[in-house]
Amino acid sequence: MLETTPPRNSKNIQINKSWCKGCGICTGLCTKVLAMDGGGKAIAANPSLCTGCRLCETHCPDFAISIGVDVN
Ligand code: SF4
Ligand code: SF4
Predict the structure, then answer these.
(1) Considering the domain boundaries, does residue 1 fall inside one?
(2) What's the pLDDT band for 44 if we cut at 50, 70, 90?
(3) Index of the ligand 2 atom closest to the CA of residue 55
């Protein structure tokens, strides 16, 4: 069976703005949660809607997004 990486805590979306080049890949993948700010950097506009799927983290070419680990 195919193994997948489990979702992580959706409430902790960290975006390193100095690494983000504003390509828009993440915001295109996740329009409900992510958006671009006025400076052309990705932001977590609606973090409460994040499911922790990590699509954004795994597709960012600059490793600028980190979805937090659930420490419960
Ligand atoms: S995919 Fe990465 S580099 Fe591109 S906009 Fe999102 S955070 Fe920035
Ligand atoms: S982890 Fe998934 S739901 Fe959360 S911001 Fe990234 S792509 Fe969107």
Answers:
(1) no
(2) very high
(3) 7
